[in-house]
């Protein structure tokens, strides 16, 4: 495993590289608001991606690197993420298509930055459609705004809601809640199958 410290306009971020044997694409995965890159669903998605020939970079946002627990504002998260993506696309993933992804808050960042970062696809784990108990504060437009193939893996009992389907995104519902820990095998299968399918046009 290789780690890199990457400068962003909001302080250094950290990226952790997990290589596939023969990588045909790069997947950037971001963490949730209060968690780190060691979350079980991120680990499962990383292993699934490696199995289908996708290199993975687990990205730690600057506020986490600095030791802060409270997440930075959305614009800062997005700006830092794009800086990391630009750096990695020129180094670790040079010449490879990039997939943006993450869990919870990280999934929102991936959706908001997909167009600017020229992502080939987006992977959302536990997309937080709304704050618990507040369905009127919907973030569905962030998901609907993505115009590349998108997979949302969601727990059936997620208190953050269940996203609606759309022309560019498909939804896989698994047993469990926002953590997605109840069916990590199901998550791995869904991620591996989807990545292999959407990245097929980029294969040599």
UniProtKB/TrEMBL annotation:
Query: Where's the KANL3/Tex30 alpha/beta hydrolase-like domain?
Result: 25-164
Annotated membrane-spanning segments are: none
Checking Pfam families in the record gives: Abhydrolase_11
Q: Which Gene3D superfamilies match?
A: alpha/beta hydrolase
Which superkingdom? Bacteria
User: PANTHER family annotated for this entry?
Assistant: TESTIS DEVELOPMENT PROTEIN PRTD, TESTIS-EXPRESSED PROTEIN 30
What is the protein name given in its UniProt record?
Answer: KANL3/Tex30 alpha/beta hydrolase-like domain-containing protein
**Per the UniProt entry, what species is this protein from, by scientific name?**
Prauserella shujinwangii
